[in-house]
Model the fold of this input.
Amino acid sequence: MKKIIFALILGILVIHIKPAFAEENYDWESLNEISDTALQLAKQERFSESAQLLSYFAVKFEEIPIDRNFISLDDYRTITSTYKNAQEVVLNNQISIEEKVRTLTKFRLVVDAMVSEHQPLWGAMESSIMATFSQMKSDIQEGDKQSFQHDFNEFLALYEVIYPSIQVDLDNERIKRMDVHISVVEDKLFEDIPVTSRTKQLDVMEEELKAIFERIKEDEADPSLLWVMISTGSVILLALSYSGWKKYLGEKEKKKETKRETEKE
Done:
């Protein structure tokens, strides 16, 4: 019985831990470090060195097999797109330093999103994004259209930085809902509706935005590990129940034997 229990536990662990080992066969941490260094160099205005690192990143990234154990096709396209965008702007003298850093930050965050299972870096932008959104609501209440447009553009710029990252981390339906909200506010007709209706729209949009950031805080436990714990616990519980049942039957039989011997006497 002990051998059977051990085999069951070992089988469960192998099934659930094997994918984790598969992912470790490729060094994602190295790519994460390369993207971080490229960003730090850009912040120091060392764009030529940053561009060299981006080229090195491309070489290393191409080694990753497009396989569900390593990276999905959608995630591969998202990272490739942000990489190419960063590569295009980093040495472009027509692009401002601020825009270059913003673009490299977007790239940095999406690579981190592939590496970090819990608390990805893009979550750290919550305070600045939510503060800008709060200012948008105040602009509506005060009837300041010019200030609202300025703050809305700033919100879009910040949201664009984390957009590739949430494509990697969140489900498409949640992202699509946020896209719809943004489209409504972008529409020229938005200015023509009553203040109460605009405020209500922003309230709903704010809740959706909060849900995006709450998604990465919900459960820091690794689901696969949790499943292993539950499964293993179930097997152990089953084994204990079986052992207890055998012990109960043994004691019952022992009592019968004692009773028979007593009756004989």
Q: What stands out?
A: The chain has a mean pLDDT of 80. The CA atoms of residues 33 and 112 lie 9 Å apart. DSSP finds ten helices and no strands in the chain. The two ends are 38 Å apart (CA to CA).
